[in-house]
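Researcher: I'd like a structural prediction for the single chain below. Treat it as a standalone chain; there are no partners to consider.
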Amino acid sequence: MTMPDAKLPVWAIAGLGATQIIGYGTLYYCLSILVPDIARDLAVSEQWVFGAFSAALLIGAFAAPLSGNVADKWGAGRVMAIGSIGSALTLVLTAISPGSVSFAVALTLMQVVSAGVLYSTAFTAIVQAGGRRGQTSIVHLTLIAGFASSLFWPLTTWLHASMSWREVLLLYAAMHVVVCLPVHAALARLTSGAVTAARTHGSPNETVRPPRNGTLIFVLMLLGFAVEGYALSAMLVHMVPLTQALGLGTAGLLIASLFGPAQVASRLINLLFGGGLSQAWLAVIATVLMPIGIVVLLATTPWFPGAVIFAICMGLGSGLTSIVGGTLPLELFGRNGYGARLGWCTSAKQITSAVAPVAMSVSMAGLGVPTSLWVVTAAGLAGAVAFVMIALAVRASSSRWYTDPPPTRLSP
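Model: Treating it as a single chain, here is the predicted structure.
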């Protein structure tokens, strides 16, 4: 039986890296390439397809807490194995949708089941099977999965040159069955054993105890992730058009292309040099990088080097955000109940991320691009303040611990 503090096998982190690349690539990134063909085939506008996708993301966000609770009880690997089957089925349903309504329903179901196979459940699997090394393994996973967009944007473009959007989605459905399902099924044996062992023997190596002001810290963490998700999503979706509107013209595409490499670079830098840094302060750094980048852009536009600094800051902040999304709840509250807490954090972030593109579009139309960017800057700084308050609150209660074992339910 797998003990709660066992070391995560190399094959597990490599396999999870592959399934995260496939998961994000097939359930998220590929749609931006396929939208024009989907819109023509279904006789709707491209804006309608993007709107349906935003609505699907919003509805799917509410599945994350449930997925986290189930992962805590059954083991995250089991949830991911079931999620692989669900992802394949919903991709098939989306591919065979005869009309716009059925397409929207299938797309929504796809985003609901995605909660069982993407970062939040993968992080839970790592924590359950990886013991005290879980935090480092989360960084490893985000480093690998950071290549999802870089791989699936060109892959989808290449496939779509000779295949319809429906055929592409059917091929991607097969990937979930052929590649992801075996990895997740094997992982299920590790995580279910770890959950059973922890339930039977407790978690003797658990060194984290929730602070006495845990409820306040948890609420601040939800607020920080929600605000951070809004700012990042608002910028990413509109990065090219807003840089063009600020006078950078076709250079907007080049500027946007710097985002991905900067995102991966931030994860590598953190892996090499960030071992001793508190995750609360890492969250502050991740969140404040985005407002800094926007301020540089506004202060220097249309100066090209300023826009380059902006894109790099955005990428660095986004890369670190993916890490602290998994490591901060672990550092603050430990492994017990981790899946449920992470589910709520994911839900808060995904809800605001789904709303942000539409809100930013309305803001740019009504207030103009510069004013809208200042609004996003203020939002990003508010998120940074929330994480600073967490760091200070943790320091204030660092000498006080609960004498009872950590709770296993959601409430911190």
